[in-house]
Amino acid sequence: MAKNKLHKYQRVKHLPNVIFSMFGKPGSPFPYPWYDKRYKGMERILELGCGKGEYSLSFAAANPLKFFVGIDYKSHRICTGAEKAIAQGLENVLFLRARIEYLREFFVKHSIHEIWLTFPDPHSKNRAIKSRLSAAPFLDTYAHLLVPNGIVHLKTDSDMLYNYTRKSIQQWGGHVVTESDNIHGTDCKSPAASDIVSAFEKTALSKGLAIKYMAFKLD
Ligand SMILES: C[S@@+](CC[C@H](N)C(=O)[O-])C[C@H]1O[C@@H](n2cnc3c(N)ncnc32)[C@H](O)[C@@H]1O
Known about the structure:
Elements (H helix, E strand, L loop, with lengths): L2 H9 L6 E3 L22 E6 L5 H9 L3 E7 L2 H13 L5 E5 L14 E7 L17 H10 E11 L2 H14 L2 E6 L10 H5 L3 H8 L5 E6 L2
Helix pairs in contact: 1-3
The protein binds S-adenosylmethionine.
């Protein structure tokens, strides 16, 4: 394993803005740090599969009165985002090393205002459908966590995942609020969706892939 990656695995365990859940499973009882009084009353926004946390960092910098949690099970990626947050003095963003499958264990019902799915793995094989972050069991979890009228945002370079998500939302009983099949080529209604470019998005753009965006509700 690369030395840099190994160092990050060690460093991340000592960062004050990372909740390090062993094996990605819930490891400690409530209250989690996001229930600290300094975050009380702030809107809560989650980024699932945040990788190096580009979205969480940019949103947190632009919205100091909102509170962000970036979640990923790869701790070396989280390490990069968390160290940047400290360097930039961003106090309204934390990172959680956990599996998205266990999300309900970390947050209370109807306490989240927005959820961002930023370039989730498409899991293109049929046998992996259940791992797609817009599959029904994940939608159940988002509906459980979101406040009434809460919103989920998806950014992806995968046509398959984009079309699958639309169907999955309809079958679940939710509805798409807005969508764009090329946010950099059209007049996208969500500036936040097109302004920030993450590591995976950069790679997709360099391959000439169109970036798709969808916002949906599960009320
Ligand atoms: C394709 S990457 C996108 C990373 C980042 N959002 C970006 O746009 O650059 C997908 C990320 O989701 C994380 N991930 C995939 N499945 C996950 C799961 N079940 N629980 C937590 N993280 C997961 C991976 O570790 C990876 O960092």
